[in-house]
From TrEMBL:
One of its GO terms (cellular component) is membrane. GO terms for biological process: chondroitin sulfate proteoglycan biosynthetic process; heparan sulfate proteoglycan biosynthetic process. This is Peptide O-xylosyltransferase. InterPro entries: Glyco_trans_14, XYLT. Keywords: Disulfide bond, Endoplasmic reticulum, Glycoprotein, Glycosyltransferase, Golgi apparatus, Membrane, Metal-binding, Signal-anchor, Transferase, Transmembrane, Transmembrane helix. It is a single-pass type II membrane protein. Pfam families: Branch (PF02485). One of its GO terms (molecular function) is metal ion binding. It is found in: Endoplasmic reticulum membrane; Golgi apparatus membrane. Signal peptide: none annotated.
Amino acid sequence: MTDKSDKQAYLLMAHNNLEQLNFLIRSLDSEFSDIFLHLDAKSKINPDEIVRPVSSQLYFCDRINVYWAEYSQVQCELNLLRLATRIGKYNYYHLISGMDFPLKNQKEIHTMLRNRNDIFIHFTTHKNVELTIPFVRYYHLFQKQLCVANRDHTFSIYKVFEKISILIQRLIHLNRISTDIVIKKGANWFSIPDDFARYVLDHQDCIKKLFNNTRSPDEFFIQTLAFNNPDYKKRIYRFKEDDSSESCLRHIDWMRGSPYTFTIKDYDELVNCGMIFARKFDLNKDRQIILKLMSHLSD
């Protein structure tokens, strides 16, 4: 295994908007980073049209179909982590989407994280965990079919099957969660050090057992693993469970959207927030903010 502790590994999940993806790859291109890209198997992006970085290495992850709120999200993240850890031992592994954008240049990010071993993951509130614990407690057997129906805005008989399935599980008092596990939840975007990344991969069987057929499993598994290990729990950055994306070093605005799409009028807010990434951006809605951030990063 190659020692790449002087580099960041960016785990990039993308599915559309080739031009924006290429801007993002250029912004990550640096002697301080390598890029690991997963293109959704449903994506129409031609991999040959993706820009190749000059200083970073770009690695393509085997493509799978990724469905919202379904275990394929977790599998994609694990596949990216497995690929990156096989290539080398990186300083940090950052999960980002094609709609994210860095707010600091790569030298600044590397300097900021070089001597850290914190685990940067987001935690939602206790109230939100309590409201969504049925997502894990019961088997959700039709998430893929429901994702397709929601995406296409169509009625699906699987919605009826899902309601019947959950009702039966409630009636028999089914609970998949072991009494020795505390479930925690947050956004799936993370920045984690090498030892915790490998700890996650070492527990893939446990992850699948508990979180397969879970609704939105990508929002539970990392937080639950970190919290239930005393050594890693102590290293969670800013562990306040107050739903602040500052905990994962991201600037995400859920007050103005789901989440809000940043525009050029938000430039000062973005460059002064102190975070390393923000989401989300949409080149088709406002390309000027991306171009101005690109210029800012190159200064």
